[in-house]
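Problem statement: downstream parser choked on a complex file, so we are re-checking the raw output for the flavin-adenine dinucleotide run. The parser issue turned out to be on our end (a line-ending mismatch), but while we're here, posting the original submission so the record is complete.
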Amino acid sequence: MPIGYWESEHLLAPADLTIIGSGIVGMSTALQYKKLRPKDKVRILERDIIGEGGTTRNAGFACFGGPGEWLDDLEQLGQDRWLRLVEMRIRGLRTLLEMLGQEQIGLEWKGGWELFGRELKGQERARDVMRALADLNRLVAPLLDVGLGDVHPLGADRPALAEDVHRAGILNAHLAIHLPWEGMLHTGRLVSAFHAALDSQGIQRLHGCSVDTLSRLDQGVDSWSISTPRGVFRSEKVAVCTNGFARQLVPELKVETAPNRVLVLTPASGAPPEGCYHAEDGYLYFRTLDRGRVLFGGGRHYGIPWPAPGSPLEEAAAVAAWDDRLVQSAEQWLGSTAIVTHRWTGWLGVGQDREPLIGHTAPGLHHAVRMGGMGIAVGAGIGKELARRIDSE
Ligand SMILES: Cc1cc2nc3c(=O)[nH]c(=O)nc-3n(C[C@H](O)[C@H](O)[C@H](O)COP(=O)(O)OP(=O)(O)OC[C@H]3O[C@@H](n4cnc5c(N)ncnc54)[C@H](O)[C@@H]3O)c2cc1C
């Protein structure tokens, strides 16, 4: 349908900044940019009716990693880059709280656990983690204290990982390490709180509007042309915040799309104690919900091949195989499962390491993508940084 007079003159008139993707990064960028430039016209274009990536489909862990994953990252990134990554997550959570409020996003500081299995690999990992526990506490606790010490019930100067480790007897684990600073939030309320904040700041959100291509027309104002099935939009600056889907618009970005399956189930023998749980190096995660239900997800390490888009039969087979494995894993950790009530796929943006990509590829064309598995932790802080960079371009 072509764009009409009222639309082109007013409703869809050129914007100062157009953000593509209404995940946590896109929405945070919009709010933070509007703070810096209150008079600018900011628009978000989102292809789904709510959102198709991770932000509306995640597990709701307010987390910054656990000892098993930290040891991997330390090895891959070295101490300085690893600590910056952990700090980025903690500061990101802080920014999220400042932007939207703890109650509005349903955040509760219930704590979490990292579980190590009884098989040989789990036992070896547990041994490595126990050896590193004191060092990890020494390095991470000050970051938590500075970032969250005044808003977290634990208060200042407490270790990142509890020293009273449970050696056995919790959820079929060989070892369980308590993560006392971890929290869980309500993903649905988080997204609603963002929508309310965007609306109150006069930021336009257009859902069901997929961007097909971006092109730069000239050097003047409104120089970016944004093609959608609904017509062509103009904008002075553009921010690509489409995470795992980013290469559709900016092919040179090094980010891959990775599916993750999630189930909501009711364990026959009851839910575990309230909180968040990580297992198998973070590839499996689960948390308590209401009415004895548990959200159980992950499984990228199963290595189940996912077909290219547009192959519904192959996709149905991959989904069935993946869900079977998840139910088996859930039974391994939680005992037999009475009923599965919800199943869905969420999309991650991943790369060779866990560091997000933030930058620009042409004048006025910015991006912040590749949030990995902890984009709810880092997303708001990344949005703040992206807004700062766009403002200072
Ligand atoms: C199953 C699952 C569980 C997770 N659990 C947690 C957790 O507990 N804690 C945590 O910290 N993180 C978690 N994550 C990670 C986190 O959800 C993501 O890293 C984060 O939401 C990414 O936010 P984003 O804004 O970068 O991208 P997304 O939320 O992926 O948003 C990108 C948006 O861009 C839109 N889009 C894409 N292409 C176009 C286009 N061409 N035109 C218009 N719009 C487009 C998409 O529809 C999408 O809505 C989880 C992720 C998944 C998938």
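For whoever reads this later: The longest helix spans residues 120-148.
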